[in-house]
Amino acid sequence: MDTPEGLVVPNIKHCEQRTVWEIAVELNRLQEASNRMKISSEDLRDGTFTLSNIGTIGGTYLMPVIMSPQVAIGAIGQISKLPRLDKYGNVCAANVVNFSWAADHRVIDGATIAHFSNQVKQYLENPSNMVANLR
């Protein structure tokens, strides 16, 4: 998280057990604590996966580096409107975003990251599918 005092990387514990709403509430708590420099050491340790949104500061692409002892990191760029072809071959404006991933291949193989990336792509292109799978 970009803060007035520099970058901090807190993490949300047990995401798999939380609803999207609970994750959003926790993310807001972490952002507020980080901005006030009141983030706890507990909030900074034991992460397994980092998701970096460089799009919020205008970035479009990043080659992310894993923070040990985490096993993977993803980076999301800024959404851009670019010309693309529709299914009929006509040029149209499309929202495009770059994602990039890095993983520790001692823990996660490339195929697993590729499947994960494809699932993220499907959810972004068809948000109703993601909503249907919420807890």
Give a description of the structure.
By secondary structure, the protein is an alpha+beta fold. It folds into two domains: 1-47, no CATH class; 48-135, Chloramphenicol Acetyltransferase (2-Layer Sandwich). 31% of the residues lie in helices and 23% in strands. It contains four helices and seven strands, in the order E-E-H-H-E-E-E-E-E-H-H. The protein has helices spanning 20-35, 41-44, 110-125, 127-132; strands at 2-3, 6-7, 49-53, 72-76, 80-85, 91-96, 99-103. Strand 5 and strand 6 (91-96) form a beta hairpin.
What tags apply to this protein structure?
about 140 residues, Chloramphenicol Acetyltransferase, lipoic acid binding, 2 domains, 7 strands, CAT-like_dom_sf, acyltransferase, three-stranded mixed beta sheet, two-stranded antiparallel sheet, alpha+beta
Topology (SSEs and partners):
Blueprint: E1 2-3, E2 6-7, H1 20-35, H2 41-44, E3 49-53, E4 72-76, E5 80-85, E6 91-96, E7 99-103, H3 110-125, H4 127-132
Parallel strand pairs: 3-4
Antiparallel strand pairs: 1-2, 4-7, 5-6
Short description:
The protein has 135 residues and is of the alpha+beta class. It is built from 4 helices and 7 strands.
Globally, the shape reads: globular
What's the total helix number? 4
Portion in beta strands: 15-25%
First-last Cα distance: 26 Å
Give the strand order of the largest sheet, numbering strands 1, 2, ... along the chain: 3-4-7
| CATH class bucket of the largest domain | Alpha Beta
User: Which H/E pattern describes the elements?
Assistant: EEHHEEEEEHH
Low-confidence stretches: none
SS class: alpha+beta
Radius of gyration: 17 Å
Give the domain tally.
2
CATH superfamily of the largest domain: Chloramphenicol acetyltransferase-like domain
- Characterize the biggest β-sheet: 3 strands, mixed
Instruction: Kindly state the number of beta strands.
Output: 7
Percentage of helical residues? 25-40%
CATH topology of the largest domain: Chloramphenicol Acetyltransferase
